[in-house]
Each structure stands twice: as structure tokens, then as C-alpha cells.
Amino acid sequence: MKKFLAVVKREYIQRVRAKMFIVSTILLPLVMSLFGIVPAVILSIDAGSPMRVAVVDQTGKMYGQLNQAIFNETSGQEASTNENANERRSFGGRGFGNFVLEEVSSENQSAEQIRTDLERRLRAKELDGYVILPPDFLAHGQAEFFNRNPGDVISRRMLQSALNRAVREQRLIEAQVDTRTRQELFQPVELQAVKIGAAGQERDSGGSFALVFGIGFVMYLAILMYGQVVLGAVIEEKETRIAEILFSSVKPFALMMGKLVGVSLVALTQLAIWGMAFSAFALYGVGLLASRGMRASIPSIPFSHYIYFALFFLLGYFVYATIYALVGSMVTTAQEGGQLAMPIILILVISFYLFFPVSRSPDSTFSFWVSIIPFSAPVAMLVRIVTQTPPFWQIALSLLIGFGSVLVIMWIASRVYRVGMLMYGKRASIPEALRWARQA
Amino acid sequence: MAASEITVKLDRVSKSFGEFTAVKELSLAVRAGRVFGLLGPNGAGKTTTIRMIVNITGPDSGSISLFGRKIDPQLQDRIGYLPEERGLYRRMKVVDQLRFFAELKNVRGKGVEAKIDEWLARVKLSEWKNKRSMELSKGMQQKIQFITSVIHDPDLLILDEPFSGLDPLNVELLKEIVLDLKRAGKTIIFSTHQMEVAEKICDDICLINRSEKVFEGSLRDIKSSFGRNSVAVRCEGGDGVLDDPALVSKLVRHADEAQALLAEGADAQTLLKQLIDSGAVIGKFEMVEPSLNDIFIAKVTESA
Question: What is the dihedral of CA B134, B135, B138, B143, to 10 degrees?
Fold first, then answer.
């Protein structure tokens, strides 16, 4: 036991002290937020000059509706009223893919003339495009959009959707539907999820759902980052040829467990640092919102659920980390290990997606089994807990089988590791690894 | 510890890996307070034998006892092992590594610090204490590796090719340390295929070849059993005589002298007489013991 702790201590201190750890702890959140910010910045770059579009309205009724619809589209509003239209306009101008429309009168000119004229203006770059709404547009809904840059899919889609809305509106007007009825017709619905608990009480489970999803995601992230580290830690003694010295002092199982626990503590340390930074940030944000009169609600989740969250998070992390350790015990270099570890990610992704079928029918036989199988249990069982909490024995069984298999996998890994070392750096195939595990 | 005490005893130990037999029916006894040479060519089974002694792997059959007991994890802490396959954590400071290896032998606390300083001074690496091992030269690393095997003051020290790759100065340094440890009552198992080194420090030897023991005993006994049938000669002329297969079965020329192994039935007197008769000017003519190397080659060829 003392030797096991010595291994844990070494793994932990060496890693936490390393520059890499400090740099990645600080840098990763920065990089992540950059990933969030940069695309938004890039998408908004285009906003400088709006697209100038001429509208040839041969129906004579559509221009006004279209202008209103375009405006609503770019300001992201479904229903609009006239009172705050001006205020909205200033917002709309800043959105991406916005338009400046110009009505081209179709009176006294033949269609040919108008088109030639518009083509000329298009070439002279006075215009970016033009739309022709034929006289039967309201009936057939077919129009043409000529523009210099047919690759600009976003603009085309926005224009199309604005036309859609305009046509719908106009048709309703023509069907003599009054303004109030029209507004009521487009009033969106709101669907509130209400959970029926065992005691009949009602509770919002949306928040817990998001939390489970978040936990699954953090688990996924932790495994992606630290699986390789576990793999590297197991291979370290092979690459530096220390394994034999260690094995004359410490049992392979204690060594492997020591490595796993040591690296995992490093992972938890890093996650805790991020978690605290994030909560401080979030609390500050909530405080800020509250001071401006907005209320952010924290989902009400029973205390027992937090314990389950922690337990199943650890379970998920350890199940996958041990697989990495097993891979590490079979290979001789980190590169080989990286290749062999690919399927692990696949299993991880699949079990993450089980989130959806399980959340739809949490008490089905399928859900029961996937919440018992160690690979999928962490996410699946948490989903079940927040939806229709299963009987306690099922939760306990899932944890028992999960942590039991962690120990079994580590035991196999340590056997494979030891025999592999005796074989002088030969890489084990899977049948060989199994045979080695059985050998004394 | 009395000299007659047995520290390590192997009784008809066998070990095979699949089809390959690494060690076959090997019995040997390592006496306490002596340097025991486990000798043999590459692939003879030396390393497997040692691994069974330190409990890294178990024998298929036969029994091994250490300090009069069956091997267990507690006993492992009384062994210091320097394997042939060895290394250091590259990014770890020398002092941290040594402390870690001591902890793995259940040695911790204040005393360790003093021990580390003492050993670093002894191998003349004190100023490297706080350097990472990747900054050390190969020879320095090897000396640190040696310390890892003795830092916990083991009663049994097992060294597998400890001097390979070291310069003569450092070989001398470590050899002195090994002999000091022996004087302090430690038992040392020394495995090598370098006979010159073994000859200088071993009290007892066991020669194994192709998984089997060829012979075992004290170096003294083995040498005398071979008899003095070798002559060191320094002379000018007389080449024809030394090349005569009826007199000399094997001739090894060094820089300024030659070593002649007498042919069967020939004696040194006849050789000397013939040399004088041939008009050679003799600077040196001395009966010498066979070197361990000669014995090794003779025995291995004989057993093959």
C-alpha cells in the first residue's frame, strides 16, 4: 500500500509540477473561448456593406411587404410592431447578410428595357443583384434572383425566406384577415416540460438534463485529454527501461493502479481549477445580470443527484482511462498506442449518443441494459436518474459492475504488462495479451 | 552473518517461455558475505535466473529460497537489483528519483536524505543532485542507477552487467564500492559475460550455458583444478617453436609478449629447451594460471 502511494505521489507531483500542466491549465480555456469567439467574429466581418438589391415588383403589391419582411429577418424578429421599428432598424443594419432594397418601377417600361438597365447597373457595381417578381407571383410563388455572386448562399436563403413571409402576409391580407388575427396566427407556442415525480410533485427537469449533458461532455473532454496521458504513463517505464527495476520492488498491479490514480488526480486537479474559475465567472455573471434586474434561475436538483453525478462521472472517466492503460500495457511506444486507442474514442462517442434514445424511454429494457454496461452506464444511468429515477438497486448494480470492471481491466493490464516486459519489448496482439494475462 | 550461511538457494529450478527453455534444472547456492559470479554467454539464462531470484517471475518447477525463507514481498525489500535493462526517469531530478526508489523499498524519512548525499559523494556526483537525469552523461546515469540498487542498504545485491559501457576509471570506482559492500557483510550476485572483471572480484562462480549449469564452485578451486598449463613468454626469435602444434595448442600474442597454452603431453621444460636451442633470446618465461576467460571458453566448447 505504501509503495502504491509512492507511485501515486510520483505520478502526481511530477505531472503537476511540469510546465506543460501549468501552461495547459491556463491556455486551454483561452483556446476554447477563442473557438467560441473567432467564428462569430469572422461571420460578422461581412456586415460592413449591405447587399444592394433592386426589386422589380410587377405585382405592384409586394415591395412594401418584402421590405418589412427583410427588415424583420435581419433583426431576427418574428412578429413586429410599428412602434419600435426604428429602433430595430439600427439593430438590423448590424446583422450579417443584410439588404438595402430599392424599388424599380415597372410602369412605362418593357421587361426587356428594365433588365438591360439593371444589367448595366450590375456591371457598373451600382447594384449587387436584382429580383424580378412576375405579375402572377402571388399565385405561383416563383421569382428570379440575379446576382453577381451566386455562391452567396446565405443571402439567397435570407431573401427567399423574407419573400416567403411577405407572400404569406399578402395572401392573408387578400383573404381579408385583419391585422390582429394575423398576429395571433403567428404567435409561437411555448411548451413547458413538467416532470411527474414519484410523490406526484412537479419539477422542472430541463436544468438537470442540461447538467447531465454537460457532465457527459466534460467526461468526454477529460478522457480525450487524459486517456493519452494514462497511456503515456504506462509506457514511460518501458521506454525508459525502468520497468524491471520497479518490478523488483513493487507488484505490477500496485504500479498500474498507482499510475492510473496518480494521473487521474492530475486530471481532477485541472478540472477542479477550471470548474472553480468557471463558477466564479458564472457567479459574477449571474450577479451582474441580477443587478440589472434580470433573473437567472439555478435548476433545483435534489442533493442525492449531485452525489450520483460525481460517482458516475468518476466511473465514466475510470472505465475509459483503464482501457487506455490496457492498451499501454500491450504496446511498446506511444505512437503504437495512439493507433490502438482509436476504437476507444469510437465507443465513447457511441455511448455518448445513447443519451438520446435513453432520454426518450428511460424505463425500457434497452435503457436498463445500457445503464448497466460499464461503457455506456455513466451517461445512460444519469439520464435515467434525472428522468425517471430507477430503483436504487439498479444504480448500485451499475456502479458495482462499473468499478468492478475497472479493477478487472487493471488486473489484466498489469499481467499483460509484466509478461510483455519479460518478452523484451514485443508488442502483444490481442490473443497474445489474453494468453499472457492467464500465464503466471 | 557467518560465511557458511546460504543467502540464496536454488533447487532444480526450471523456467520456459512457450517452447523455449530459459533455465533447466538449475541448482546453486550463494554463500553469505561473498561475491558470487553468475557467468555465461549471452542468452544462457542468467537474466531469467536473476528475475526468478528477485521474484519478478516464478519458476515453472523447483524451489528458490532467500535468507532461508521462501521469497515474499517483504524479502524483496532486502534485495538491491540492478538489471541489465535499466534506465532513469528522464525529466526527474536525480534526488527525486533516488528518493522514489528508496520509497519503493519502504525506506523513507530523514535518513534517506543523508544516504542520498553520502552515495552521491561516493560516486562523485554531488553537484548533479538537483539536475534532471536527461542532463547527465551516460556514465553518470549508470552510476545513479547503481545507487538506486543500494540506496536502501540491501543485504543481497544483484548486479547484472553493472560495468558495461563504463570507462575504466568508473569501473574501478564501482568495483571498489562492490568490494566495500562485501567487506560490510553483504552478499553480492554478479552476472556478466566479461570474464576479466569477474575474475577480479568474484569469490565463487557458477557458469551456465544453454540454460544449464556447467559448473559451480570457488574461483580458487576451479583455477587449480585446471592446473598450470599456460606459459607467458617474451622472446625474440623462436617463432617456429611457439607455432609447433605438438608443443603449443593455442598461442595468443599480446603487444610485447605471448601466452601459450601447452599442448597435451607437452611440458614447459621441453618448450623452454626448444626455444633456447632455436636461438631465441628469452626475456620472460613464466608458468601462469589459466585465465577465467580460458576456462570459460574451454568449458563452453566442451559442453557444446
Answer: -90
